[in-house]
Amino acid sequence: MGNASSARRHNIEPPPPAAVVVEQDADGSSLFSLKYASVLSGSEQDTEQGIAGIITSSLKNNTARGITGMLYHDPSTKAVVQVVEGPRDAVQRLYEKIQCDTRHTGCRIISQRLVPARAYADFGMALARTTGDVEQLISEAETPQHSFAEHLV
């Protein structure tokens, strides 16, 4: 017999499942994190201009939307892994825009989940230039390395 049936037989309540405490933004929305990978399209010059444009628009728009994050980029392979976090609706709307952005090809979601706290709370969007294939960038994005950050806002 399992512990639950044995516990009920003796009028002992089994402990409730462990709850995950999820931090909420000021408006009461739960924090959501989405990580995706893509490859930037175009020449090396196009890629650099694309990265500059992504960071510029992120810094301009993300704060008002409650979004923070980090963009990991390998200039030699044009691989990108980006982590965006904030209110679920805002993050999902942003990803829909990213998928339509012609600067990216092959967008794919790596993970999306509720999170207990922001990993990139100090960054409207930060840029980490690194080397490696997409899988290595994904691995680096698993553990936030704030020392990578070039742009801090």
Could you walk me through the main structural features you see in this protein, from its secondary elements to its overall organization?
This protein has 153 residues and is of the alpha+beta class. It is built from 4 helices and 5 strands. It has helices at 3-9, 44-65, 88-100, 134-142, and strands at 31-40, 68-74, 79-87, 104-114, 126-129. Strands 4-1-3-2-5 form a 5-stranded mixed sheet, with helices on both faces. It is globular and about 40 Å long. The termini are far apart. Residues 1-22 and 146-153 have low confidence and may be disordered.
Summarize the structure.
The protein is an alpha+beta fold and 153 residues long. The chain has helices at 3-9, 44-65, 88-100, 134-142; strands spanning 31-40, 68-74, 79-87, 104-114, 126-129. The chain is 33% helix and 27% strand.
| Beginning-to-end CA distance, first to last residue | 57 Å
Fraction of residues in H or I helices: 25-40%
Report the principal-axis shape.
globular
Query: Mean pLDDT score, rounded?
Result: 76
Question: Order of strands in the sheet with the most strands?
Answer: 4-1-3-2-5
**H and E order:** HEHEEHEEH
Largest sheet, if any?
5 strands, mixed
Number of helices: 4
* Rg from Cα: 19 Å
What proportion strand?
A: 25-35%
Number of strands: 5
Regions with little confidence, pLDDT below 50 for 5+ residues: 1-22, 146-153
Structural class: alpha+beta
